[in-house]
Amino acid sequence: MTDPRVLSVNVGAVREIEWRGRWITTGIWKTPVEGRVALRGVNFAGDDQADRTVHGGPDKSVYAYSREDYEFWRGEEAFDTPVGLFGENLTVEGIDLSSALVGERWSVGTTVLEIAQPRMPCFKLGIRVGDAHFPRRFQRAGRPGAYFRVIQEGDVGAGDAVRVLERPAHGITLRYMTEVLTDRAKAAALRAVPNLPEFWNDIAHGRIELE
């Protein structure tokens, strides 16, 4: 079993691309950075998001995806899976992100990060991989990756160990949260999670109708 660690730190500026006859902005193109990268506020140095209403911000400051989940997609899809393909800031290995708990705290480099929520993919992930239908398959697979809050600023570099500092007692995993999207009977259990992002708090209290 590989010890949990960071394989790469990936950042990207906002770019403009043509899609279906119109121009859109996106920050999903991320590439690995050598050396140590500072994490301040809600971004790694050199990183940005195009639409802050749905990307970035305190509850989506850092996105992580795992090598093991990429290996799953390599077997399922007809595209290569270089680090950063899904727009993650941290490509990690040796840790099952889908089984990680919401509110779990990690020590990574000199930072402390707290898992806030799973990813809900938008159409830009389909653009990135060249398949408009991919976001639906991504959602169904239950391998969402993890969005983090920044509890302690610092810096991170490839090779840094990932250490789990705290695991809350409620037992709600990122995989469970994605299952809530298709099984509303599970939604009430989310109320046991402190500091839920607004969208998930609304789901937990029945203020958003699920399909």
CATH superfamily: PK beta-barrel domain-like
CATH class annotation: Mainly Beta
Helical content, roughly? 10-25%
Biggest beta sheet attributes: 8 strands, mixed
- CATH architecture descriptor: Beta Barrel
**Quantity of strands, as a count:** 13
CATH fold-level assignment: M1 Pyruvate Kinase, Domain 3
Strand arrangement across the biggest beta sheet: 4-1-8-7-11-10-9-13
Mean pLDDT comes to 94
Q: What distance separates the N and C termini? A: 39 Å
The domain tally reads: 1
Strand content: 25-35%
Give the SSE string. EEEEEEEHEEEHHEEEHH
Radius of gyration: 16 Å
Instruction: Tell me, briefly, the overall form.
Output: globular
Low-confidence stretches: none
Secondary structure category: alpha+beta
Would you give an account of this structure?
This protein is α+β, with helices and mostly antiparallel strands. The chain has one domain (5-169): PK beta-barrel domain-like (M1 Pyruvate Kinase, Domain 3), CATH 2.40.33.20. Helices cover 18% and strands 29% of the residues. It is built from 5 helices and 13 strands. It has helices spanning 67-76, 123-129, 134-141, 174-180, 198-204, and strands spanning 5-11, 15-19, 22-26, 31-32, 37-40, 43-44, 62-66, 90-93, 105-108, 111-118, 146-152, 154-156, 162-166. It has an 8-stranded mixed beta sheet. Strand 2 and strand 3 form a beta hairpin. The model has no long low-confidence stretch (mean pLDDT 94).
